[in-house]
Write a structure and sequence with these properties.
Number of helices: 2
Number of domains: 1
CATH architecture: 2-Layer Sandwich
Shape: elongated
CATH topology: Alpha-Beta Plaits
CATH class: Alpha Beta
Helix content: 10-25%
Number of strands: 6
């Protein structure tokens, strides 16, 4: 059965991580869903580069943070926060591509 990430995560957000980086958080509804995503490696470099049209070198970190049942990743910003041409000074509206993630629920 195909499912959408919004069914299993209660928080999907983005925010500044300084003027040159943006971080993304996916916090799962249960530790079991977190573990499922970690074991299946659903959030991976290939997915992130595809969703955000970045190179693997633009991905600064992918972190599995078990205490919060969260997967976090950080990207280099294309344009520094607050610079001319930059469109989201707080980085709070960059999470939208993550909402399209679908996966096979094999349970």
């Amino acid at each position: 059965m195909k499912r959408n990430i919004t069914e299993v995560a209660h928080v999907i957000r983005s925010k500044n991580s300084g003027p040159f980086e943006i971080t993304f958080d996916i916090m799962f509804k249960t530790p079991e869903w977190f573990q499922f995503f970690v074991e299946k490696e659903i959030i991976n470099t290939a997915l992130i580069t595809s969703l955000y049209k970045v190179t693997p070198q633009d991905i600064l970190a992918v972190v599995h943070f078990k205490p919060a049942s969260a997967i976090k990743f950080t990207l280099k910003r294309r344009i520094p926060s607050g610079s001319p041409g930059e469109t989201d000074i707080y980085g709070a509206q960059q999470h939208a591509p993550l909402l399209s993630i679908t996966f096979d629920d094999l349970q």
